[in-house]
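Chain A, query sequence.
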Amino acid sequence: MSEPQRPQPNISVFEGITIIIGLILGAGIFKAPSIVAANSANEAVFLGLWLLGGVLVFAGALCYAELGAAHPHAGGEYHFLTRAYGAPTGLLFAWARCTVIQTGAIAAVAFVYGDYANVLVPLGRYGPSIHAFIIVVMLTAINIRGTVESKQTQIVLTFLEFSAVVAVSVAGLLLSQAAPGTPAPASSGGGNVGLAMVFILLTYGGWNEAAYLSGELSDVRRNMVRVLMLGTAIIVAAYLLINLGYLHALGLDGMKQSSVVAADVMRRAVGDSGAAILAVVVIIAALSTINATIFTGARTSYAVGLDVPLLNALGVWSPRGHNPANALLLQGAISLLLIVLGAVSRDGFEAMVAYTAPVFWLFLFLAGLSLIVFRMREPQRDLPFRVPLYPLPPLILCATSIWMLYSSLVYAGPGALLGVAVLLLGTPLIWVQTRRGRQPQQT
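Chain A, predicted structure.
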């Protein structure tokens, strides 16, 4: 009898970096800067907040580089949390990722894609939701077809997306600053800065998905830190560049008065056709993020399928596609259900962000804390990569996560409570598994 298929280390450093860039570099950079500008006292504060966001991302990436290199596994954070805190915490996270975090993120970006796709191909009142539904089906099918196809798709989309960001940045830097209009009211107080950081960290989100590459990354002990550091460095540089372009073209007051800064820059650069060009740019960015999120998302369900007898069907690694095909199907189905539910809300994107944010930040805090747990539990362990300046980076990650958890609950409203409620619905799974006494596989 042949051995069951397992993930193979066939993701190169270049492919890993393109996946990370695709996960982080999303449509948020075309929407969030105007909100950040409205909560910044001057241009130095505006750029400083984006730089601070980059520093916080680097701190988190360093933590995940150590975790991923020391505990490589296709289950990523599920594996970290299970080893650090035991099976109940790991299973609760797996439930949350499958029903809230990852599927909600896929649905949220699909709604962004749908909004702009509906501008180019109008499909009526529910057009954005229809477009979102179709693209999730298509990209899930590509990923099920095979890892090679999904990686090739990601490389193409990331290249187009990054080129588009550079084009908007250069257009902004080449334009002279727009004549000032009615001055925007000055911002003051730390609360406004806090709100700005919520949107900045949302725009930087996705770097933690590198954890799910650890089971398939070639020479993971050396290459995990390379993928995370190079990927996040490129993103921080790109975000600073495009925000410099926005400032140069519109000025801080112009950004405060604009709800679509990238569209305004492109309109000034090439006329009214700039809106159509921007729609294509945002569509490319959304496609890249959705594909990368689908690719990494199903790895958690696959890992749970290996551990939970009732869910063994999810723990099948397809020899044809070299991927967790059953887990991809489940993830796609739940994402489509959330898109249907989001279609009846006022704004599908905002509804999905509110739904996912508190649960995401709760488990990111636990993941950051797990690094400290492992260091205390195994102080003499030979680690392939050690976080520099320890324990500062994990403390920064934990403090940021707690702050964002609080902020998301305060700003997100009822949608956040719904996400927490769905998280709690997963507790029976933990009870059943604990009663069976089965412990997840550990390596």
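The mean pLDDT is 84. Residues 151 and 373 are 34 Å apart (CA to CA).
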